[in-house]
C-alpha cells in the first residue's frame, strides 16, 4: 500500500475526537500518507487522493439553508465526479439519508422482515411533519398501536439539537413536541445501551448507560427533557440512568444476531463507517434497534486505528484488482452512487 494518499475531510470537533494527528502518525508507519482536506480551498490543488474519508454532516445540513455551504458541497461533489477513481467513504446519498430520522427509522422498521430469523426489531414510531391539533396526533398513535411513554427526537440526526430529546408520558405531554420530529415507543431495557461500532467488515460492541425503566401506559408525570450525550456517554452520571428497582441482569445481545444486523445494514446503507444503538427488552429479550449513527466517535474501541487502516487498505486493494471498466468503489458491500 506504499504511496497511498488518504484525504480526511472532518470538522474540527470530529478531527479532535478521532485524534486525527495520532492516526496520521499511525498510517505513516504503514506507508500511508494522511492529508487533511481544506474545503475552503480547491480540492484539485490538494489531491490526488486514492480515498477520501469524510464526515460532511455539518455541510450537508447547513446546505439546506446556507448558500456558502451549498457551494462547498457542490465543489466537493464536482471534484469527486471528476475523479471517479477516488474512493469515497462513505457515499453522500447514504450519509444524507441517515441525517434524516424519517428516512433512517423507515430503514430500521423494515429490518424485522430481512432479519426475522434473529428476533430483531425496532420500536413503533410516528413521524410528525408539522404542528397539528393534538387529538389528531393522539388518534394516529392509537391507530398505529403506539403506547406511552414515548421518546421524542428531532428529525435532523446531527448537531447539538439532535441530542435534545424528551420522554412524554401522556396525551397532555404531546403539547411539548416541536415538529418536525419522531415519536418513538419507549422500550424498557434495564438502563443498558449497546453501541455497535462498524468499521467495514469488523464491528465492536460497547456497553453504555441508558435510560431507566418507566411504567408502561399513560400517567400524569410531566415531560422529561434530556440530552442523550449526558445520558449515554461513557462518563455519564444521571438520575435518569439509575434504576428504581432491583432487576436481574439482562442477557447481552447475541453476537450472531449483531453480526447479522451489521451485515444487513451494510447492504441496506452501502456504508462502512457507522454505528447502531441497540437495546434488549426486559420483557421479551428482543434485540431492538433504536438509532443508526454516521461515522460515530468509536469511544471504547481500542482497535479503531488498525481497523480503519485495514479497511482502507482492503477497499483500495479491491479497487486495484477490479477490471479496468470498474470506475468507482464505495465503502459498503454494494455499489452506491456518489451524487446527491
Number of strands: 14
Give the end-to-end Cα distance, rounded to a whole number of Å. 30 Å
* Architecture (CATH level 2) name of the domain at 4-90 and 301-321: 3-Layer(aba) Sandwich
Poorly predicted spans:
325-340
CATH topology call of the domain at 4-90 and 301-321: Rossmann fold
| Shape category | globular
Structural classification: alpha/beta
Helix percent band? 25-40%
Secondary structure tally, helices: 11
Q: Report the β-strand fraction as a percent range.
A: 15-25%
Q: Please provide the ordered H/E string of secondary-structure elements.
A: EHHEEHHEHHHEEHEEEEEEHHEEH
What are the SSEs and their pairings?
Elements: E1 4-9, H1 12-18, H2 20-28, E2 32-36, E3 51-54, H3 57-62, H4 67-82, E4 87-89, H5 92-98, H6 101-109, H7 111-114, E5 120-121, E6 125-128, H8 134-143, E7 150-154, E8 164-168, E9 181-185, E10 192-199, E11 202-209, E12 224-227, H9 228-232, H10 255-269, E13 273-280, E14 287-294, H11 304-321
Parallel strand pairs: 1-2, 1-3, 3-4, 5-14
Antiparallel strand pairs: 6-9, 7-8, 7-9, 8-12, 10-11, 10-13, 13-14
Overall description:
There is one protein chain. The protein has helices spanning 12-18, 20-28, 57-62, 67-82, 92-98, 101-109, 111-114, 134-143, 228-232, 255-269, 304-321; strands spanning 4-9, 32-36, 51-54, 87-89, 120-121, 125-128, 150-154, 164-168, 181-185, 192-199, 202-209, 224-227, 273-280, 287-294. The protein has a domain at 4-90 and 301-321: Rossmann fold. It is globular and about 65 Å long. The strands form three sheets. It has a five-stranded mixed β-sheet with strand order 5-14-13-10-11. A five-stranded antiparallel β-sheet has the order 6-9-7-8-12, with helices on both faces. The protein is α/β, with parallel strands linked by helices. The chain is 31% helix and 22% strand. The two termini are 30 Å apart. The relative contact order is 0.16. A hairpin with a 2-residue loop joins strand 10 (192-199) and strand 11. Mg(2+) 1 binds at residues 277, 291. Keywords: ATP-binding, Isomerase, Kinase, Magnesium, Metal-binding, Nucleotide-binding, Transferase. Its cofactor is Mg(2+). It is an enzyme of class 2 (transferase). 1D-myo-inositol 1,3,4-trisphosphate binds at residues 14, 55, 163, 195, 293, 297.
Amino acid at each position: 500500500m506504499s504511496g497511498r494518499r488518504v484525504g480526511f475531510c472532518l470538522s474540527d470537533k470530529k478531527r479532535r475526537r478521532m485524534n486525527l494527528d495520532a492516526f496520521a502518525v499511525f498510517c505513516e508507519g504503514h506507508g500511508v500518507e494522511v492529508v487533511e482536506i481544506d474545503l475552503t480551498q480547491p480540492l484539485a490543488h490538494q489531491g490526488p487522493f486514492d480515498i477520501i474519508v469524510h464526515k460532511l454532516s455539518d455541510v450537508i445540513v447547513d446546505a439546506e439553508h446556507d448558500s456558502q455551504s451549498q457551494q462547498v458541497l457542490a465543489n466537493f461533489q464536482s471534484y469527486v465526479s471528476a475523479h471517479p477513481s477516488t474512493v469515497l467513504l462513505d457515499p453522500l446519498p447514504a450519509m444524507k439519508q441517515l441525517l434524516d430520522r424519517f428516512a433512517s427509522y423507515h430503514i430500521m422498521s423494515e429490518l424485522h422482515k430481512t432479519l426475522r430469523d434473529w428476533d430483531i426489531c425496532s420500536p413503533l414510531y410516528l413521524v410528525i411533519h408539522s404542528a397539528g391539533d393534538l387529538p389528531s396526533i393522539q388518534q394516529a398513535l392509537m391507530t398505529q398501536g403506539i403506547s406511552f411513554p414515548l421518546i421524542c427526537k428531532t428529525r435532523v440526526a446531527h448537531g447539538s439539537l439532535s441530542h435534545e430529546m424528551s420522554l412524554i408520558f401522556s396525551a397532555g405531554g404531546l403539547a411539548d413536541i416541536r415538529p418536525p420530529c419522531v415519536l418513538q415507543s419507549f422500550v424498557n431495557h434495564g438502563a443498558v445501551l449497546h453501541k455497535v461500532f462498524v468499521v467495514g467488515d469488523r464491528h465492536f460492541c460497547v456497553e453504555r448507560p441508558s435510560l431507566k425503566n418507566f411504567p408502561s401506559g399513560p400517567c400524569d408525570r410531566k415531560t422529561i427533557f434530556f440530552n442523550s450525550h449526558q445520558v449515554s456517554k461513557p462518563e455519564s452520571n444521571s438520575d435518569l440512568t439509575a434504576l428504581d428497582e432491583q432487576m436481574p441482569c439482562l442477557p447481552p445481545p447475541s453476537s450472531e444476531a449483531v453480526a447479522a444486523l451489521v451485515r444487513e445494514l451494510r447492504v441496506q446503507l452501502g456504508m462502512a463507517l457507522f454505528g447502531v444503538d441497540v437495546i434488549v427488552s426486559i420483557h421479551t429479550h428482543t434485540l431492538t434497534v433504536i438509532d443508526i449513527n454516521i461515522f460515530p466517535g468509536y469511544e471504547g474501541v481500542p482497535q479503531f486505528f488498525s481497523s480503519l487502516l485495514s479497511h482502507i487498505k482492503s477497499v483500495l486493494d479491491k479497487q486495484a484488482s477490479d477490471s479496468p471498466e470498474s470506475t468507482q468503489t464505495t465503502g459498503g458491500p454494494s455499489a452506491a452512487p456518489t451524487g446527491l
